[in-house]
Design goal:
Elements: H1 3-19, E1 26-31, H2 41-48, H3 51-54, E2 57-62, H4 67-76, E3 81-85, H5 86-96, E4 100-105, E5 112-117, E6 132-135, H6 141-151, E7 160-163, H7 169-175, E8 180-184, H8 188-197, E9 202-206, E10 217-222, H9 223-228, H10 230-249, H11 251-261, H12 267-281, H13 284-288, H14 296-310
Parallel strand pairs: 1-2, 1-3, 6-7, 6-8
Antiparallel strand pairs: 3-10, 4-10, 5-8, 5-9
Helix pairs in contact: 2-10, 2-11, 5-14, 6-14, 10-11, 11-12
Keywords: Signal
Protein name: ABC transporter substrate-binding protein
Pfam families: NMT1
Length: 331
Amino acid sequence: MTKSALAFLLAGAALIFNLAPARAADALTFQLDWLPGGDKAPIYVCLHQGFCEEAGVDVTIAGGRGSTEAITRLAAGASDIGISDIGALMAARVNEDVPVTAVMSIFNKGPHAFYTLEGSGIQGVADVEGKRVATSPFTSSNVYLPLVLEDAGLAPDSVSLTNADPGALGPMLVSGSTDVIIAWMTDLTRYGNQAREAGRELVALPWSAAGLELYSASLIASDRFLEERPDVARRFIEAFRHSVEFARENPREAAASVAALVPELQAEDVEGSLNDALALVFNEVTQDHALGTFDPARLAETWQRVSAAQGLEAGALDPEEIVARDFVPQG
């Protein structure tokens, strides 16, 4: 074969190779448990920074209105993988035997907290006795409130509890309409800014510091998705975990990614919420156990708290049955 003929064949082979379609990305639907925001930054980072694309997954985000809805959609196969409070998953396993499994811890501390103002005289959970406490009727914190009060030696009726719209909680606190509000630590910056605008300083009393030790927001997946497409699940979870680490190292850029994909959000607001949320992801628990893992003892403690809070039989669930540890490096 002459050199010119060989060159012609090689050129033709190269042309065929270049025209061959690239392997299509594997599609999956990611289920949110609530509205977009800083605490949901990793999935937007995964998309905007190209980590999902690099993993070969084409992700569609489905909006959510709570952990229960997220779990229901995953169980029904409407979504493949997403976010939920692991306590809600535990309860759903007991009550409905949903085919959904937790694959990665996101918040290894619960986000629940009391907020009050400096000068209120409230320095610990026990100090809320006899105080006016406002809460949203929709927050999962209400389920754990009796346990937190009991841990502090208080009766469930030791506070005057009022339900209010979530958006009204901050104004109620700074205006003196209530002594305490129940909110999440993911909103620490927002409530702190509202207090400072009124010339006050916010005091946060996280329930985790008062003894409510449990896992919270977690990455959960449809069992069918995990069984039928384990390689897709593994590639996505690795990309999501990388996105969590990216958000920690680059919070401003991560916030910009959220704002780029959710234009109604302002990057500076997202960054505050993200930094608040990161404290629930990276802390002493993460130091003792690798990012995303479920420590058996802490998982068992979580179930103990969930079952007590929701009136479920402690023996109704082995918490080890609702987690899969083979998708995240165990450290």
